[in-house]
Amino acid sequence: MGTFNYSDEKFADIQMLRYKVDGFENLTLKQKTFIYHLQEAALWGRDILFDQNGLYNLEIRNILEAIYTDETGNESDKNLDGFREYTKRVWFSNGIHHHYGCEKFVPGFTKEWFVEHVKKAKVAIGDERLNTICDVIFNPDVMQKRVNLAEGVDLVKTSACNYYQGVTQAEAEAFYAEQKQKGDPLHPVMYGMNSTLIKKGGEIMEERWTTKGKYGAQLTKIVENLRLARTYAEDAQQQAVIDKLIEHYETGDLKAFDEYSILWVDNTEPLIDFVNGFIECYGDPLGLKCSWESIVNFKDLEATKRTETLSSNAQWFEDNSPVAPEFKKEKVKGISAKVIKAAILSGDLYPASAIGINLPNSDWVRAEHGSKSVTIGNLTDAYNKAAKGSGMLQEFAYGEEEIGIMEKYGDLTDDLHTDLHECLGHGSGKLLEGIDGDSLKAYGSTIEEARADLFALYYLADDKLIELGLLPDKEAYKASYIGQMQNGLLTQLVRIKPGDNIEEAHMRNRALIARWALEHGKAENVMELVQRDGKTYVKINDYEKLRNLFGDLLAEIQRIKSTGDYEEAKRLVETYGVKIDPELHSEILERYSKLNIAPYKGFINPVYTATKDCDGNITDVQIAYGEGYDEQMLRYSKKYSVAVGQEISTDKNK
Ligand code: ZN
Question: How far is the CA of 561 from the centre of ligand 1 (A)?
């Protein structure tokens, strides 16, 4: 097998990546078939999000694609380059606004060029309609922001998202306040999550997203494929999950959605799991309407074995930590973190994706039935692998020896660091009796993250991990020490604007640990900051002693937590975790900008192909990774689309 390319093309502020679905080949035919139907159900929802993100998005996408694929008259010029980049951005954002910043894209081609090419590509559109479309694309005052959260204006009227038509913010708020008041106060459904709120003849009403309502064509296809998948579900409860979801899609009933969520949360046994539904509410300025998304995934058995090994040895780790005995738990229970592999991403998880899932969103369902919290291991892995080719390591590592260690062990120790942090670190130690868990106030989360990180760092260098078969040798842990020091002292600063302090708890924690260790190891020259050609590097001289420093700080941080020592928490965080040396900061930012790394990343999906026998039964499912970004987008638009204006409601009173 050839090498797998984690990085694909780059355009605008985007770097496209690929993720690998290791282990798919080893699934049974039944499991592969289940995934196959679920990923079809996932891809059929793509157009819903385009329409939710803006009234004209699908129509614009179709026009752009007609020009993009028109081979008759695309002479290479600046306009064409700008046009191709714009099209790629629209695909990436599922619309004409930036996926993260929400501002409308500025096209890198002229209106005249566009109109000329619309005609050349023989797009069936009247002049008046084309004028409207041009206004939407080229006029900076039209549909400026997808989601506007600025104070003092009507957020519904000033947001370009397509969740409200003809209603004001006040009207929408009053409409849902009334619904809430009428409903069950203890078990409220998520009012408004699956409908467009419209004003028709002076009356405000919901246009529900169901198989018979708005997005009916897409939801019907989704339901069709969910039904096909149902036969191959892994257990009876999973079939019940699918049945409830279908009921919700067919009726639009919000109670059915809560019931579905509860069944889904309880269904933890199957290897394969999926999300398919109206889930994320960030796209609505009022936070009520949910964007459609889907992910199909299966448990990462190898990673889960790793976390199970750690949690079954949790007591040994607790007993042997450098923390004072009175702050240790007599009986500790490790958490077996769940790691999953994404098999397909769609809707609001595609191409830009979260790397963890924590659902459902309903507060009362979470409180009474819990939630599923998982990390998506193969996406994290793709980020890490792609970062390797970015030049970061070569730019910031002290020398060849450090680069060699990082390249050899970096991935392994990163994963293990996360496991130790999550499975054991956060769960270790105890508060003294009578100590309030909130005593450290604003410094609490930084101290807590530092505690979990130090627990991980201390044990990464322990022979126990080699004994448990989690690390190969006594060299490996050095990768995590180099990584921790480089990141805490230097590289994490690239995420902060000049003049700002470090605010985020995980970042404060990393700075705290690294700067504290640097200072306290000075007398024995444990490590140092070295200047070379005007560049700053971290050089670790004594790894063993650095481990002892981590142990000392862990003991102190645990004491602060156990006794609720607010003053000392404050002193440590403020002294080591907050401020940035402006000279070092600008040096780091300059070195980083020269690497030309795209700030946003997204994923190209793998392609699943089913082989069928003459009766139409699936006999095998193959996975392939070679599809290009534009190839994939064009294929999805062709295969998983219904004609615009035909099935999707096009109420134009916005
Ligand atoms: Zn944590």
Answer: 15
- pTM assigned to the model: 0.84
Closest CA to 429 of 398, 401, 450, 403: 450
Q: What is the pLDDT of residues 114-157, one digit of tens each?
A: 999 999 999 999 999 999 999 999 999 999 999 998 889 999 99
Give CA–CA dist 4/19, Å, rounded. Answer: 9
**pLDDT of 325-351, one tens digit each?**
999 999 987 777 788 999 999 999 999
- For residue 553, the one-letter residue type is L
CA distance 538 to 371: 41
User: 508 C-alpha to center of ligand 1: Å?
Assistant: 12
Q: How far is CA 422 from the centre of its chain?
A: 18
Residue type, position 75, single letter: E
Can you state the percent helix, strand and coil of the chain, rounding each to 5?
50, 15, 35
Residues pairing with 612 in the sheet: 618
- pLDDT tens per residue, range 162-210: 999 999 999 999 999 999 999 999 999 999 999 999 999 999 999 999 9
Under 8 Å between Cβ of 114 and 57: no
In the reported structure, the alpha carbon of residue 639 is separated from the centroid of ligand 1 by a whole-number distance in angstroms of: 42
For residue 422, report the distance from its CA to the centre of ligand 1, in Å. Answer: 6
Contact partners, residue 251, CB within 8 Å, separation at least 6? 210
Q: Positive or negative CA dihedral for 126, 132, 136, 138?
A: positive
